[in-house]
Design goal:
The complex is a heterotrimer. Chain A is an all-alpha fold. In chain A, 75% of the residues lie in helices and 0% in strands. Chain A has twelve helices and no strands. Chain A is elongated, with a radius of gyration of 22 Å. The relative contact order of chain A is 0.15. In chain B, strand 7, helix 7 and strand 8 form a beta-alpha-beta unit. Chain B is globular and about 55 Å long. By secondary structure, chain B is an alpha/beta fold. In chain B, 37% of the residues lie in helices and 25% in strands. Chain B has ten helices and ten strands. Chain B has a domain of 181 residues: P-loop containing nucleotide triphosphate hydrolases (Rossmann fold), CATH 3.40.50.300. Chain C is an alpha/beta fold. Chain C has a domain of 80 residues. In chain C, the strands form two sheets. Chain C has an eight-stranded mixed β-sheet with strand order 6-7-8-3-9-10-12-11, sandwiched between helices. A four-stranded antiparallel β-sheet of chain C has the order 2-1-4-5, with helices on one face. In chain C, a hairpin with a 2-residue loop joins strand 4 and strand 5. In chain C, helix 4 packs across helix 5. The longest helix of chain C has 16 residues. The chains are: A mainly alpha, B alpha/beta, C alpha/beta. Chains in contact: A-B, B-C. At the A-B interface, helix 4, helix 8 and helix 9 of A face helix 2 and helix 3 of B.
Chain lengths: 279, 268, 336
């Protein structure tokens, strides 16, 4: 078992796409975690003139309110990663829990879960998030993350449900029973190993989705009001029309980073999926 | 006359579908038959005839709506209750299924799949004994143990997978094997050698067998007795000679008519 | 091969040294590797073999249903006196497909368009190939459906409204509306229930008997089905033909060790068949067909052959005519 896990990991690292994706993600994670600790400038205080271009004093210049863009950028990465982690943890847990119980219990439980997820899927989730967020006067990073989390589980829940259903209907479950395997043994040895990579892939996708969703929410004006995220940076840059003024330094770093996070997680998710999608 | 080991009495299975307006589907309708020691019988029918449902009930994977299945005189639903008795039952009655692809969990090695069958054994054995027994069983079905033990099912061909499933039967040596279309997804050329493994099982261990199949040709080749199933009922029963030479039920006649044959032509 | 100009013997099909490969990442799969076949009178030929022997690829290639990674690598095809090699893809589509050659695939559902009624499907297909008006096309279709005892109502149905067997029969009728010289049927009945197979076969045979097509190549793994309508059987193994003969000869007395294994493993509900199978234990095939990326040297069957000799490993056996119209490619039958 141990050897098979390590050989799988080795095989995973042989996939270039996975290695590159992971490398990018690690770099972003490192910047987000270590960056704010090293560069000790407050991201929220006005420290100079507005729109100072990048230079010796302010490595990435200042924004419309005269705040340090590098500090904002570093804190923003951290904030966005928080949102991603919290939101994806919430929606993933909901998706796994609801998906598997719907599959295992069937009947009414299945009907309820499926109807709920259908409703969630039908209404564009950004609309739902906007409604939820608009009700809450003060929106911290946590609240935004929770809002994203509880509105984005539906699709993956259906995925987990169908995966579990297909596993349960497989002949090998019957053969495991005929081998005298207990129910617990079947769950641990048959169902979990098959679902595990799917969970990883789902986590990666949800993580990037959540970060993007936060950016989206903030851009339409119902996002974060307190903490700094990459979304907030883009929001500020947008309301002050930085693009048309050629103030590139407030826009380019956060956009590139958001894209990179999304890309890296996408690469990781698809390579996990490719490796484990047995024929 | 050898003794009866399995009796199926008035077996019925009704499926109810739909939540509010329920619809009943009678999959198996009051069937009766028995299997003697060392006997090979075939349940022949098209899809939807209830043959697979019958197999699942005998394997104790599915609860019948009414009727009984008696193995060595014991009712498999009433008299078998705890895990120990269940294991005893599956030690004696086990199965091979149709699809060699979905019969294996892709994350499991053949070693694991084979070792798992030792759950059914009462006696304690050390790992080396188990492995040497597994190797023995794999050799019996014409596989090379060293080559496949640490492989996963998707690294093997369909024919080899089906052999592994049959090796499990050789390992536990049950009294009765239910083989549900065990060769329908295997090329014709390899089919015979697999069927011969079942015949070998009977010759060596007097294992009784129930073949579940749609293929009258296969049934003719392997069985002592053929039971023709149609819409949940057994409509005809007899030796291959009886069924082929003088079928009495219209369904059997139609079935025989529609199967292409080697020594007669439909069109001239 | 230039001698096959118009005016000489008009063969229905003449294929020389035909090769069709799949170019995949894992390597080149030589699915059809040097096949010769000529049909010069009205016949139904059955091509049989295990899955993976290349028979379906042959069907695709001969009917020009060639899409990457599959490619026709080499070989001359002459159909009805027309050399196909010189033609462009577009020309083939306009002048050959459906007019000279037609294909019946395994699943009619994939060939028909699910959102289009049979009637409009026929119109779309024929408009492109012929100059017929819509009315003429429908008249032709109705006439043909009547001829083949197909219900006219089927014309106004969507493919999913037809049963599997009916769908296959309708497809046979559509594919042969323009009376192609050659019809290639690739496992036309294997996706169907036993009870409907006979009907489909009957339609196929009807087409032939009425002279609507000149010849049929019937490709299948199921020899008992094939034998119902074919005059000759060709056995294919690992991308090559290994034996050819009349149906009766092939069933009763296959020569090639592979054909023996293949044909003596057929199980049909007949007591004679049970006896012959029980007796034929020594010819039973062992092992699995080889990979077509890296096929065995010499005779491709030698790793599985109980009679393999030294020469079999080294040299490829030629196809020799052991009796009139009886061909086999095996060193056991080469007199030296």
């Amino acid at each position: 078992m141990i050897s098979s896990i390590s050989s799988t990991i080795i095989r995973l690292f042989r996939i270039k796409k996975f290695a590159i994706g992971l490398l990018i993600l690690l770099v972003v994670l490192f910047i987000g975690i270590v960056g704010p600790a090293i560069y000790e400038v407050s991201p929220t205080r006005t420290i100079g003139r507005r729109y100072v271009p990048p230079g010796e004093k302010y490595p990435l210049g200042t924004d419309a309110l005269g705040r340090d863009v590098l500090a904002q950028f570093l804190h923003g990465i951290r904030g966005s990663l928080y949102v991603g982690a919290i939101a994806s943890a919430i929606s993933l847990s909901l998706a796994i829990f609801l998906g598997t119980i719907a599959a295992v219990f069937g009947g009414l439980v299945d009907k309820i879960v499926m109807t709920l997820s259908e409703i969630l899927l039908l209404i564009p989730s950004i609309l739902l998030m906007m409604l939820l967020a608009a009700y809450l006067p003060e929106r911290s990073l946590w609240i935004v993350a929770v809002v994203i989390g509880i509105t984005s589980w539906a699709g993956w829940c259906r995925g987990f449900r169908s995966r579990t259903l297909s596993i349960l209907s497989s002949e090998f479950i019957n053969l495991a029973i005929l081998s005298g395997a207990s129910r617990l043994n079947i769950i641990i040895r048959d169902i979990v190993p098959i679902i595990a990579p799917y969970v990883l892939a789902a986590f990666a996708m949800l993580f990037s989705y959540s970060i993007m969703a936060e950016v989206g929410l903030t851009l339409v004006g119902v996002g974060m009001t307190k903490d700094v995220t990459l979304g907030l940076m883009l929001y500020v840059a947008q309301i002050y029309a930085n693009i048309s003024q050629g103030i590139w330094w407030t826009i380019v770093p956060p956009s590139i980073t958001v894209t990179l996070i999304f890309l890296s997680l996408y690469m990781i998710a698809t390579s996990i999926d490719e490796l484990f999608s047995y024929r | 006359m050898s003794k009866v080991i399995l009796e199926v009495k008035n077996l019925t299975k009704v499926y109810r579908i739909g939540l509010i307006r329920q619809k009943e589907i009678v999959a198996v309708n009051n069937i009766n038959f028995n299997v003697k020691e060392g006997e090979i019988i075939s349940l022949v029918g098209e899809s939807g005839s209830g043959k697979t449902t019958t197999a699942r009930i005998i394997l104790r994977l599915l609860r019948p709506t009414s009727g009984n299945v008696l193995f060595n005189g014991k009712d498999i639903w009433r008299d078998i209750r705890n895990r120990k008795e269940l294991k005893w039952y599956w030690r004696n009655v086990n199965g091979v299924f149709q699809d060699p692809y979905s019969s294996f969990n892709p994350t499991h090695t053949i070693r694991f799949v084979m070792l798992r069958k030792f759950n059914l054994f009462d006696e304690e054995m050390d790992y080396d004994t188990k492995i040497s027994m597994i190797k023995e069983a794999l050799k019996e079905v014409g596989l090379i143990p060293e080559e496949i033990l640490d492989k996963r099912s998707f690294e093997l061909s369909g024919g080899m997978r089906q052999r592994v499933l049959i090796a499990q039967i050789f390992l536990i040596r049950p009294k009765l094997v239910i083989a549900d279309e065990p060769t329908s997804m295997i090329d014709a050329t390899l089919r015979l050698s697999l069927l011969d493994l079942f015949l070998k099982l009977r010759d060596e261990f007097k294992t009784s067998q129930i073949f579940i199949t749609h293929d009258l040709g296969l049934a003719t080749y392997t069985s002592d007795r053929i039971l023709v199933m149609y819409k949940g009922k057994i409509v005809e029963e007899g030796t291959p000679e009886e069924i082929l030479n003088k079928p009495s039920h219209p369904y059997t006649k139609k079935l025989l008519e529609s199967v292409p044959k080697l020594y007669s032509k439909w069109f001239t | 091969m230039n001698s096959l100009a118009i005016g000489e013997i008009m063969s229905i099909l003449d294929v020389r040294n035909f090769r069709a490969y799949y170019f995949t990442k894992a390597g080149t799969v030589k699915a059809v590797d040097g096949v010769n076949l000529s049909i010069d009178k009205k016949t139904i030929i059955g091509i049989v073999g295990e899955s993976g022997c290349g028979k379906s690829t042959l069907a695709k290639a001969l009917s020009f249903n060639v899409e990457p990674p599959l490619k026709i690598v080499k070989g001359d095809i002459v159909i009805d006196g027309i050399k196909i090699n010189d033609m462009t893809t577009d020309e083939i589509r306009r002048k050959i497909l459906g007019i000279k050659v037609a294909l019946i695939p395994q699943s009619a559902m994939n060939a028909l368009v699910p959102t289009v009624k049979i009637r409009s499907f026929i119109k779309d297909v024929l408009k492109e190939k012929t100059g017929y008006t819509t009315l003429e096309i429908f008249e032709l279709a109705v006439k043909r459906f009547k001829e083949l005892n197909l219900p006219i109502e089927a014309l106004d149905m969507y493919p999913f409204e037809l049963s599997g067997g009916m769908r296959q029969r309708v497809l046979i009728a559509i594919a042969t509306l323009l009376n192609p010289s050659l019809l290639i049927a690739d496992e036309p009945t294997s996706a169907l229930d036993v009870s409907t197979q006979k009907m489909v076969l009957e339609t196929l045979y009807d087409i032939y008997r009425r002279g609507l097509v000149k010849s049929i190549i019937f490709i299948s793994h199921d020899i008992a089905t094939v034998r119902q309508i074919v005059d000759e059987i060709v056995v294919m193994y690992a991308g090559k033909f290994v034996e050819k003969g009349s149906t009766e000869e092939m069933i009763n007395e296959p020569l090639h060790p592979y054909s023996k294994g293949l044909i003596f493993s057929i199980l049909t509900p007949e007591l004679i068949v049970r006896e012959r199978v029980r007796k034929a234990k020594e010819v039973l095939l062992k092992g699995e067909p080889p990979s077509l990326i890296n096929p065995p040297s010499g005779c491709r069957f030698h790793p599985r052959c109980p009679y393999a000799m030294d020469i079999c490993r080294r040299e490829e056996p030629p196809m020799i005519e052991v009796e009139r119209n009886r061909f086999v490619s095996c060193w056991l039958y080469v007199k030296r």
